[in-house]
Amino acid sequence: MNKIKIAIIGVGNCASSLIQGIHYYKNKNEEDATGLMHWDINGYKAYDIDVVAAIDIDKRKVGKDVSEAIFAKPNCTKIFCKDIPKTGVEVVKGPVLDGIAPHMKEYPENRTFLVSDEKEADIVEVLEESGAEIALNYLPVGSEKATRYYADCCLEAGVAFINCIPVFIASDEKWAKKFEERNLPLIGDDIKAQIGATITHRALAKLFSDRGVKLDRTYQLNTGGNTDFLNMLARDRLRSKRISKTEAVQSVLKERLSDENIHIGPADYVPWLKDKKLCFLRMEGRIFGDIPMNLELRLSVEDSPNSAGCAIDAIRCCKLALERGISGVLTSISAYTMKHPPKQYPDPIAREMVEEFIRGERER
């Protein structure tokens, strides 16, 4: 089969895990491969994905082959596939715009971003000349201007867009219409993890609702030590993130909680955790007879591979849409793999929608 040609915007931990995974599964078969929701999607395997362009702003990555750049600082995710062959694709420099929070200048070099002195590339030209079909947005949380800039570049270059961060593109009618008019698929916004804080919180909230338990209040606090958590110390960058994560939980409840009774968001940056994410979740409710109960959960997981497990399916579904001439937002895979899709569905229903899409029984 033809390769799925992708461009990576932001060669951070998530990109590192995704690219490692592409090569890791080359040495596996369906029987011994773990960690994939789908081994095969209409003939496409994980290793059929080919990175043909990569964009970053850090001087330790710009100018390097992608195979080297994914292991450069400040990346700190676990290495599970270290032998990545040279790709022949060099990381080019993109515009910084609002991609770096000002406070990050105060931290040690191996923890933060160091802006390259190289000339900024013409991103539209890079996308066109590389032959990229799909671009993945892995910019830091809060990169509102930068995300819109790259979305515009994709529209101009004729490239589908998968928005993995909480800036509202797929869930914004104006942006969704732009991609539909250009006959390009769009997936977003804000990627879920395979088993992460949001999917776990959703599952438990739905369980409370289905079992007749009145949920009175809940919180989800997350800590980590990667650049994403360092970036999110700037609380002014978190507005869309909080909306995205909170709505993902609210959408499965029979009755929405008031703002004062639901708190979801990052708690703090703990450097030595590196790419490990700790989630502390509490739910308080009432069972039969209005008797109080509560549930507390602690989840520990490597953050970036958790994200890549969903991205690998989003990419392949996007390729199917390109082959089938489907444009605009892909409702099914967005609902299943994203925290803030245009329309929320319970996860079991979203999964079945994806299966129907893969089989060609559903347009989107």
Major sheet size, sense and barrel closure: 7 strands, parallel
Number of helices: 11
Which CATH-level-2 architecture of the largest domain? Answer: 3-Layer(aba) Sandwich
Structural class: alpha/beta
> Which fold name fills CATH's third level, the topology of the largest domain?
Rossmann fold
| CATH class categorisation of the largest domain | Alpha Beta
What is the number of E strands? 11
CATH fourth-tier homologous superfamily of the largest domain:
NAD(P)-binding Rossmann-like Domain
Mean pLDDT: 96
**How are the strands of the largest sheet arranged?**
3-2-1-4-5-6-11
Taken from the alpha-carbon principal axes, the silhouette is globular
Terminal CA distance reads 22 Å
Strand proportion: 15-25%
Instruction: Note the run of SSEs as H and E.
Output: EHEHEHEHEHEHEHHEEEHEHH
User: What is the CA-based Rg, rounded?
Assistant: 20 Å
Poorly predicted segments = none
Counted up, domains total 2
State the assembly state of the protein chains: single chain
Helix content: 25-40%
